Structure prediction request, 457 residues.
Amino acid sequence: MARLVIVSNRVPDPAELAGPRAGGLAVGLADALTPGTLWFGWSGSRAKQTTSEPVCVESGGLTYATIDLGDADYRAFYLGFSNGTLWPLFHMMPSFTAFDRAEYAVYRVVNHAFAAALLPLLRPDDLIWIHDYQLLGVAAALRAQGVTNRIGFFLHIPFPAPALYEILPPAAELLAGMLAQDVIGFHTERDRAHFLGAVNAVLGIGATADSTITHEGHVTQAIVTPIGIDADAFTAQAIRASRRVATKRMIDSLAGRALMIGVDRLDYTKGLPARFDAYSRFLSNYPEHRRHISFLQVAAPSREEVDRYRALREELDHKTGAINGAYSDFDWVPLRYMTRTVSRALIAGFYRTARIGLVTPLRDGMNLVAKEYVAAQNPADPGVLVLSRFAGAAAGLPEALLVNPFDIDAVAEAINAALVMPLEERQSRHVALLGRVRAESASAYCQAFTAALWGEH
Ligand code: ADQ
Prediction:
């Protein structure tokens, strides 16, 4: 069988993969990480210059091959064009989007450096699977070096509406580069439609009824393969976690109050300021629930070198103070806000305890927290998922309470609806949601994508 080569911006440390903090891409790709697989990308370390010779480590039958990023490349490629331009624009937040021609030039150079470092490791029948917005140009760079292998690409973040995508000065070049791939995968139909619309608007190429595009004689297929989790493993983790001393301490501290939980990276796309405003509106509009609810927001710091992220942190500190100042009592604090990473193993127990999972990103590729919350529930007494319509997860979870996160009053109403929802309705929604989370799983994602990469779609 052909070898699978995974290419992603960050390659996880093999030691972390076995530990309780394992999350992100490694969880979604678990089924694809079979012995023999090669995983290539950035080590997460920085050097004076971007290194060209990958360091290879064997672990658990896999080979991890990594390069280090030079300091200047880290700033221009990673913080700059990837996270200052593509990230906000693809999340359809144009006013947060900056463009700097010099940073884009470095993005191109680093994408070529990834391709050049990977090239000597490739075998003729390898299947290459590239991940995410930092690496839009790697396939074209590999093709320029004569690579004819099947290459697939998966976009973990949304693809913006064509009218927004066109804002990007190198819109045409990036799309043409993406079309060097044989398969391009998205989480939702909406993302695929946006992509096909952009190809049409920017390059003037129409797609066939089965979403294939022919560009300079090369055929690319656009597919929809939503990422998921291993629901049964997560349920088991939640049950184990609920017996831990830390979870018991948390339950004791609630003193019988309902827990509402939010778990996110501290990122402006996750809609935390609006979420805090909605909670404040809820406390104001539904005084009967005051003292009977406790909202725990866990927010893992992220990209702290970027000004906008620092500003977000300050804004949330301020809002937390305002909410707790206005509503706290000497024996009740309405909002518990933690800015640190908590292990998935512990969070699973918190999800299981929580009567409401509040997942309200302004825009999100998928959002795995929504799926984890569903999998963690006790079917006999399940909590309610309040979910943003603009998370990719909403397309596959229609039995959640779907909200527009920009509508503060609507989110406040949904919190109230979740709190007063009768047990039978919670159970029937949960049965349906769990069925969907189990079906749209991590392994279904890997199988569907690799089948398409094999040419079996
Ligand atoms: P992310 O934006 O990182 O990923 P998400 O899918 O919500 O977002 O979370 C990934 C993992 O991180 C989950 O397993 C979650 O439990 C964990 N996590 C998040 N916040 C945490 C915290 N504060 N403490 C501990 N763990 C935390 C990108 C896209 C998403 C897409 C994924 C996968 O932005 O839309 O779902 O890739 O494709």
Observations:
- The chain has a mean pLDDT of 95.
